[in-house]
Specification:
Order of helices and strands: HHHHEEEHEEEEEHEHHHHEHEEEEEEHH
Number of helices: 13
Structural class: alpha+beta
Distance between the termini: 49 Å
Number of strands: 16
Number of domains: 3
Largest sheet: 9 strands, mixed
Helix content: 25-40%
Length: 451
């Protein structure tokens, strides 16, 4: 690091600390009663319960139909004909995250933040509700071998964070008219019928219903609904504040939350100041607080990189068993990200994040000695191919892919590397954008080849 850059490093850090101290002294804070006791991503205990309690017309908010009406308006179901005064909202009804009904019309809401879809999950819920309401739900219409439910009777809503995730639940497909149906094998559907908690609820086994389907997101519909709801109760202090705190939790899910007290990451990114590895200048740093805070920022940015969602790809290594215990060393973790940016010699490296491309290939974002790599590794049912060289796109999109070996059992994979320190210091860095563009090119190439 050049002398001028070194001085600028500390002057900016001092400026940041002065701003932060002044804000704290003025009483600004980021305390949130919801996220203090629950994880911001807790689907069931935080989000399903909070949404359900707001939608409940008999809830202790005593606003009656207000929040339910605004919700239906936001998701374009205000003219669907639900009798608001007769509506009940159930949270966790026979495993259904949220179930809304007036006795004649039925809304099933499946809430998915990070959890995976369970086998036949949505079809199971549809079958249970149809079985319980056989006398009022018309199941007589056949459609290409499926039983089509009338749109005015039942709707399935799939709630996800930002809309970039898969468009329909696992093992389901959507037709041109916006109906979903189970697209897996009949044998799997029958196996699901016999599992505990469903056997007895649907006596004759699951039927393959087609149900009207709508996808909504926390980023769009839920956020808009909460803002409308907050405005509607702006003169009721406790409700307004409760909604404000829940809106902040939703922003955390959407990764758009910005604290009221300036954070180092926001300050550094805003000023486009690249983070340098501390081991380069450690001999010039006497303040241990600076070392701790800057290395913490770097490790957080690296962890965010590995945790990010990528359009249309399943993030598979959040449960290490899917990669296999033998390759656990290859999977990122907060402690590994922290160790990578430690100032001691022998930093941890060679770990990363896996995404499912197809039955043959996994995407791998990987940190090596001095680069972040974007690559492809072969697999069979998530077991990594440790010996065979995976196929290499020949001159596809002009990528300069290489065959790389790691020290973990001879894993071979194709990758392209980009300098990581600049990437982590500036989210708008051109190298990072180029890496993602190349990544999408690789994915497109392999998807087309496997069609």
């Amino acid at each position: 690091m050049e002398e001028k850059e070194y001085k600028d490093f500390f002057s900016k850090y001092e400026e940041f600390k002065n701003i932060q101290t002044e804000q704290k002294n003025d009483g600004k804070n980021d305390f949130n009663i919801l996220t203090s006791v629950l994880k911001y991503s807790d689907e069931v205990r935080l989000h399903s319960r909070m949404i359900g309690k707001l939608l409940d017309i008999d809830g202790k908010h005593y606003r009656g139909e207000l929040f339910l009406k605004l919700f239906l308006e936001t998701i374009d179901l205000h003219e669907w004909g639900l009798k608001l005064s007769e509506t009940t909202v159930s949270i966790g009804y026979i495993d259904i995250d949220l179930y809304i009904t007036d006795g004649e019309k039925h809304i099933i809401i499946e809430n998915k933040i990070w959890a995976k879809d369970q086998p036949c999950q949505v079809t199971k819920y549809i079958n249970i509700i149809v079985e319980e309401n056989k006398e009022s739900i018309d199941v007589s219409e056949e459609d290409d071998g499926y039983i089509k439910l009338k749109e005015e009777q039942l709707i399935v809503i799939y709630l996800t964070p930002r809309g970039r995730e898969k468009p329909v639940p696992e093992d389901h497909s959507k037709d041109k008219d916006g109906y979903i149906y189970f697209s897996g094998k009949d044998e799997k559907l029958q196996r699901c019928s016999k599992k505990s908690r469903t056997d007895g609820l649907v006596k004759d086994g699951f039927k393959n219903y087609k149900a009207k389907y709508k996808k909504i997101t926390y980023k769009d519909e839920i956020f808009k609904w909460l803002v409308k709801s907050q405005k509607a109760v702006e003169n009721i202090t406790n409700l307004h504040e409760a909604l404000r705190q829940y809106i902040d939790a939703v922003k955390m899910v959407n990764k758009t939350y910005k604290g009221r007290v300036l954070q180092l990451k926001d300050y550094w990114i805003e000023h486009k100041y690249p983070i340098r590895p501390l081991f380069i200048i450690k001999e010039k740093i006497e303040d241990k607080t600076i070392i701790k805070e800057i290395s913490g920022l770097q490790s957080d940015l690296l962890y965010e990189l590995f945790s990010q969602d990528i359009d249309g790809l399943e993030h598979v290594n959040t449960e290490v068993k899917e990669i296999s215990k033998k390759q656990k060393k290859l999977v990122y973790a907060k402690r590994k990200c922290k160790a990578f940016f430690g100032i001691a010699k022998g930093r941890k490296r060679d770990f990363g994040s896996f995404y499912y491309i197809n039955k043959n290939d996994l995407l791998l974002i990987f940190v090596g000695v001095s680069h972040i790599h974007f690559g492809i590794v072969g697999h069979a049912n998530y077991k990594l191919d440790m010996h065979d060289v995976v196929h290499q796109p020949k001159d596809a999109y002009g990528l300069e892919l290489i065959n790389r070996k790691t020290g973990f059992g001879g894993l071979r994979w194709h990758s392209k590397g980009y300098p990581n320190m600049e990437v982590l210091g500036d989210y708008d860095n051109s190298a990072f954008k180029k890496g993602l563009d190349d990544l999408i090119a690789i994915i497109d190439y392999n998807n087309k080849k496997n069609e």
